[in-house]
Amino acid sequence: MDRRFHQRVRGVAGTGEGATRLLLVDDDPGLREVLRVDLTDRGYEVLARARADEGLATLEAGPPIDVVITDLNLPGESGLDLCARSARARPDVPVLVITGHGSLDAAVAAIRAGAYDFITKPFDLDVLEVAIARAVRQRRRPRRPSTAADDPVAALAGDSPAIAALRALIERVAASDASVLVRGETGTGKELVARALHSLSARRDGPFVAINCAAMPEALLESELFGHVKGAFSGAVEARQGLFQRASGGTIFLDEVGDMSLPLQAKLLRVLQERRARPVGGTEERPFDVRVVAATHRDLREAVAAGAFRADLLFRLDVIGVDVPPLRARGRDVLVLAERALAAHAARAGERVTGLSPAAAERLLAYGWPGNVRELHNCIERAVALCEGDRLEPADLPAAVQEAACPARAADPLATLAPGADAAALPTLEEMERRYVHHVLDLTRGNKTLAARVLGLDRKSLYRKLGRWQREDGAA
């Protein structure tokens, strides 16, 4: 690594406020002293401690600390305990965790306990320095107040409990630099979630670079991600910078990462571990500084079990998981999104379509939307083009949407009763609740976490209800 790189990294870290002060906690005296000397030589002020309790005492009563660096395996209280207590006592101070290859699950637990990032042994000091600079930059950069006009989360429109919970999760997760795996069906808006995470983060002024991993062959995808040198392959008439380099200082979005081939998965894992990428045909690895947000419509845990996806790469990507609800689980959000899409497409096409007729709204609510929000936008664009009046009518909608059954009749158990039926045949409130809960579980394909959000319950309450009903069925 050349001198200019170290100067650039320290320039980002210091921001003109004096030497960056590090608290280093490691019980290995040899490693602790090597790191202390090397980091001091690079211009940092380093306070070294051997135990978690000593580190916490320094953090609470000593001089101001910019970044904590701790090993996970410490005598007495662990590095995980240090992360949790530090997050409570000094939430403004980022914690970097050092972990061995065999304890990635513990590193993930540390992120969830409040750690900012983790670095896997053995590591290069340049990699650690990039992580330090990234952590200090996030700590010192002021958060901009958001307004209704520029709030990226506002694009995730709707009033349903599921989408409200998603917006709240994005706002909590955005401040971290940990990798995020966005899970959801095709067309639910996973890239919109990634852009919201970037725009609310300390990296907002850096680039947002997106790539669809399913849209190109393996060799081309490798070149796009990591770059190539001149003459690396036929047609490589000049060197090309990879997306990881271009995204440095910002966020890289790996869409449909579950479609990546196993050989390329292995190369991506190494790049994420080392925080360096080697261009195709090159010999020199180049450092980068990015936050990784990946997305998939596949169940990657099932893919791991089937041997189609690497478990260690899943650990790296799924530090924080974000589930995007399907449109069919968002209730009347369909109409909110439809009205927004209608206004946008009508303005673009110069059409005087001002809204939805009640009958058209009924059909939109009834349809299952297998293509989710993307399908809804396509549907509204088509309807605006065909509409001859000032409101969309059922005849303007695609045939599949026109033929959808009224949701009130399809989901309401009372709709099956004929007028004047015996009141004794009516279901009890308990039975209505039970049917509705199972209806929502069907809509979310058994995802209890997502179902709880849609129902406005916490997961424990939902599990208690399901457990009670299961016991009652067994007793019967």
Amount of beta strand: 5-15%
Main pleated-sheet profile: 5 strands, parallel
> Number of helix segments?
21
Biggest sheet, strands in spatial order? 2-1-3-4-5
Which structural class matches the secondary elements? alpha/beta
Written overview of the protein:
The protein is of the alpha/beta class and 476 residues long. The protein has 21 helices and 16 strands. It has helices at 3-14, 29-41, 52-61, 79-89, 104-113, 125-140, 161-173, 190-199, 218-226, 243-246, 262-274, 300-305, 311-317, 333-349, 358-366, 372-386, 399-402, 407-411, 429-443, 448-455, 459-475; strands spanning 21-25, 45-49, 67-71, 95-99, 117-120, 180-183, 208-212, 227-228, 240-241, 251-255, 276-277, 286-287, 291-296, 320-323, 355-356, 391-392. α4 (79-89) links the parallel β3 (67-71) and β4 (95-99). Mean pLDDT is 80; it is low at 1-16, 141-150 and 407-425.
